[in-house]
Specification:
Shape: globular
Number of domains: 3
Number of helices: 13
Radius of gyration: 29 Å
CATH topology of the largest domain: Rossmann fold
CATH class of the largest domain: Alpha Beta
Structural class: alpha/beta
Largest sheet: 8 strands, mixed
Length: 504
């Protein structure tokens, strides 16, 4: 009976713990809750039968003492729960630090001049509002934010005015400006605060016309997510048809080149050359297997996009590609664009051409920022990009670190040119932009080239868990789910053995 009770308690604890850690009621949680409930029910039935067999007066004090202990345990649990609810002490035991606010969110909230308000609109009994309430209360502890709660049924005018679609929506307002957040994760709150600030960081010119990535396309292959993210960060995007331009627009604070698929015209390359010579800024996202013509211009600045494909076996097989073609990078140089990234904050690049970086003139500062593992190597066989499984065979290619991203500063003729080159463009597509820390390193690269280093930060995630091509949600759920099965079984076995020895 005691063994069944112990098993039930442990199973229930692991089931509930897995649910609260991941925010997902998966198979592991369901099985543990079901088995734990059945075990406790069986233990209860066995206990009732045992009590019914006890008829002597000598057993009644034992039964009474046990009943009193049970009542005391429930009373203590109730007192602790109420005390935790009323106190300001908070513990964040979620797998992703869901209630630990990022510096980016606190910075965005603290830069408002007027009174910033947050109104939480909810329906009675909506369990989601508890999490939102905790986030808002936590935010109000660190920045001047006034938090209110309103019942959605009692606020029909606000529902129409703020376009509130459902319960658990938050409206941030300052003056006559407002932003409505219907799924208030920290990431969504951060972006709403940034939009509400209406900060202008400049103009980014996106070149189009030679098959470059489309910032208006909204499917997985498009780059509309990048356009929205740049707009959130205060950049205004303007599109220029590269084949028609003879000069880069004068109001351009930076040029963004996303994976041209055809060779660009010489006139376009010359326009870029003149723009950079005047202290221009360029962020180039290049794909393996394509020669666009911009490679020769970048080589003049010591950034050479090599005509090969990077293979890094340390990344293993990720998604629908052979082992090592889709690279998970975790090696970073000390550079503003990679600030805060480390072996626990990785970036993902699906299909990479290696970048060589070296200074071509005295005073130039050229460096690799993101690089592969020391087991990587480059192959000239571009057909490996079509390989969907297995391992890419290495012939005589040497292994070693290879740059995936490089950056350069060029103080020349009284001005400073800044360039960032990525050996991949797909990482910025809608499919992968929010994978791991891809968005952060790209947006921070833009901030760096336009000399907005004060804007560089690590952004909170839009989703509750970090997106990853495996995907990371499933990886975390596996860790907090099936990954807990072994310690759970060991704990049950150890408890049963202990109880038996104690009873012997």
């Amino acid at each position: 009976m005691r063994g069944l009770a112990l098993t039930g308690v442990i199973a229930l604890s692991f089931g509930l713990g897995s649910f609260y850690a991941t925010g997902h009621f998966g198979v592991f949680s369901a099985v543990n809750l079901a088995l734990g409930s059945l075990a406790l029910l069986a233990a209860t039935v066995a206990g009732v039968r045992r009590i019914r067999r006890i008829g002597g007066p000598h057993s009644r004090p034992v039964i009474l003492r046990g009943a009193l202990l049970i009542v005391a345990a429930f009373a203590l649990a109730l007192v602790l729960e109420q005390s935790a609810t009323r106190s300001r002490i908070q513990f964040d035991w979620t797998g992703e630090g869901r209630f630990e606010l990022s510096p980016a969110t606190l910075k965005a909230c603290g830069e408002f001049d007027g009174e910033l308000t947050a109104a939480l609109y909810r329906s009675e009994g909506d369990p989601r509002t508890r999490r939102t309430r905790l986030l808002l209360q936590r935010l109000a502890q660190f920045c001047p934010l006034v938090v209110r709660e309103l019942l959605l049924d009692e606020s029909p005018e606000d529902e129409d005015r703020y376009a509130i679609g459902s319960s658990n929506s938050v409206v941030f307002a300052i003056g006559d400006r407002f932003e409505t957040v219907e799924r208030p994760t920290e990431g969504a709150i951060y972006e709403a605060l940034y939009r509400l600030r209406s900060v202008s960081n400049g103009v980014v010119t996106v070149l189009r016309g030679e098959g470059q990535g489309d910032p208006e396309r909204q499917d997985d292959l498009g780059y509309s997510g990048l356009a929205v993210a740049l707009g959130t960060e205060g950049y205004r995007l303007q599109v220029a048809v590269s084949a028609a331009i003879t000069e880069i627009p004068d109001d351009s604070d930076a040029v963004l080149l996303i994976s041209p698929r055809r060779r660009m015209r010489d006139s376009t390359i010359d326009a870029l050359r003149r723009y950079l010579a005047k202290g221009g800024r360029l962020v180039a996202l290049l794909e393996p297997g394509v020669e666009s013509g911009v490679e020769s211009l970048l080589a003049e600045y010591g950034l050479e996009a090599l005509p090969s494909v990077l293979v890094d076996p340390a990344s293993g097989a990720v998604e629908d590609a052979a082992e090592g073609l889709n690279i998970v990078a975790y090696n970073y140089a000390e550079h503003p664009a990679s600030a805060g990234l480390n072996q626990n904050r990785m970036t993902f690049f699906p299909g990479v051409r290696p970048i060589a970086a070296r200074a071509t003139r005295p005073g130039d500062r050229v460096m690799g920022v993101v690089w592969s593992s020391p087991h990587a190597w480059a192959t000239d066989d571009l057909s490996v990009l079509e390989q969907r499984s297995g391992r890419v065979e290495r012939r005589d290619e040497p292994q070693g670190y290879r740059y995936i991203m490089a950056a350069g500063r060029y103080p020349r003729d009284g001005v400073e040119t800044r360039i960032v080159v990525f050996g991949d463009a797909d990482f910025a597509s809608n499919r992968y932009l929010r994978a791991l820390y891809d968005l952060d390193i790209l947006i921070n690269s833009v901030h760096w080239v336009v000399q907005r280093e004060s804007q560089i930060t690590l952004r909170p995630k839009i989703r509750d868990t970090v997106q990853f091509p495996l995907p990371m949600q499933d990886t975390l759920r596996t860790l907090y789910g099936v990954g807990l099965l072994v310690p759970e079984l060991l704990l049950i076995a150890g408890g049963v053995v202990w109880m038996r020895r104690r009873a012997a």
